[in-house]
Amino acid sequence: GEDAGTLSGGQPLGLALSSQWPASMDAVIDFSTPKAALQAIDQCVARRTPIAVATTGFEPSQMEAIRAAAQ
């Protein structure tokens, strides 16, 4: 995918962006939208991968789904 630095208008960072999940990862840090964050949480739960969610703006029902996923 395109380099994150170049995409943001800066210098290349050597960090390729992709719409596909990698085969393996150590952890995920999400700072997207509530809808995308919930999808990321689902992926991480299925893969048993830790996730730190820095997204804001969740509805109460979405927060409950996050709490349930954390169990």
Secondary-structure element order, N to C: HEHEH
Widest sheet, order of strands: 1-2
Distance between the termini: 34 Å
* Major pleated sheet: 2 strands, parallel
Supply the helix-strand structural class: mainly alpha
Low-confidence parts:
none
Query: Which whole number gives the mean pLDDT?
Result: 94
Helical amount: 40-55%
Q: Quick one: overall form?
A: globular
Count every beta strand, where a strand is a DSSP E run of 2 or more residues: 2
List descriptors.
single chain; 71 residues
Describe the protein's architecture and organization.
- The chain is mainly alpha-helical and 71 residues long.
- It is 41% helix and 8% strand.
- The protein is built from three helices and two strands.
- The protein has a two-stranded parallel ribbon with strand order 1-2.
- It is globular.
- The model has no long low-confidence stretch (mean pLDDT 94).
